[in-house]
Amino acid sequence: MKNVFLIIIFSAAILSAQSFRAEQVEGQVTAQIGTSENWTIVNNGQFLPASSTVSTSKNSQVWLQGNNINLLIKGSSAVKLTSIKKMTVNELILALAMEDMLNAPKKNENLYSKNTAVYGAEVNGIKPPIVESDNFGIKRLNGAVQLAESGLKESAVVFARETFRKYPETNSIAAFRIYFANILYNLGLNEDAYDDFKTIRSLKLTDVQKEEVRTKMDTLAKKLLRN
Questions:
Q1: 35 to each of 31, 57, 78, 194, how far by Cα in Å?
Q2: Is there a contact between 148 and 131 (Cβ–Cβ < 8 Å)?
Q3: Which residues of the chain fall short of a pLDDT of 70?
């Protein structure tokens, strides 16, 4: 019954999602609309229904303008329009429960593609990783980072979690995993953040990343013991 309740809530959220207008299109920007597997070119002024997914190639970008939310999608990124929304922390908790329900145990795959990581300015103490790649899972994670940079941190985490589930090869990219775990940490979702860092600890990490994960886990463990 709980699972049915969660599905009903998220189905209603999708139905109420808003459409967006594409503005200032630069370079190659494409959209996949509804259940279609075809990608079509996005033009300036074009209206995109909520069922769309927008993807940009390298050195491309597009402004998406909605009723009360605008988002710049930069190069090598992909975003589902239903993910461009404001969420409360309680809604995030519900969405994470939904993802846990959908996420069957899967063996992590190694990522063999060559990628160039570029680190931008910090957002609330978090350095956002952007990886140039044609791998669609990575493009979605780049899009999730841009959602977070635009202040939509809760929806960014949900979109990232969905991406990790649907594109399991992305689970091994430590920079992304740490980035989104840190968002949970800063939102005060200590148990979820601790579980994420615990999983991240088993990945191939740099010395700096190992120290960050260890420090965060120690801090979170103390907070959880006090609760």
A1: 12, 21, 16, 36
A2: no
A3: 1-17, 103-128, 130-132
Q: Which residues sit opposite 116 in a β-bridge? A: 132
The residue whose two tokens read 């992909």 is 78
What is the spatial distance between Cα 76 and Cα 78, in angstroms, rounded to a whole number? 7
Q: How far apart are the C-alpha atoms of 218 and 212, rounded to whole Å? A: 10
Show the tokens assigned to 12: 């209603």
Cα–Cα dist 186/190, whole Å:
9
Predicted pLDDT of residue 12: 45
Long-range contacts of 185-193 (CB under 8 A, 24+ apart): 185/216, 185/220, 186/124, 186/125, 186/126, 187/89, 187/92, 187/153, 187/154, 188/89, 189/89, 189/92, 189/93, 189/96, 190/220, 190/223, 190/224, 190/227, 191/224, 192/96, 193/220
Encode pLDDT of 89-146 as tens digits.
999 999 999 887 876 555 444 444 444 444 444 545 556 676 667 789 999 999 999 9
Contact of 193 with 220, CB cutoff 8 Å: yes
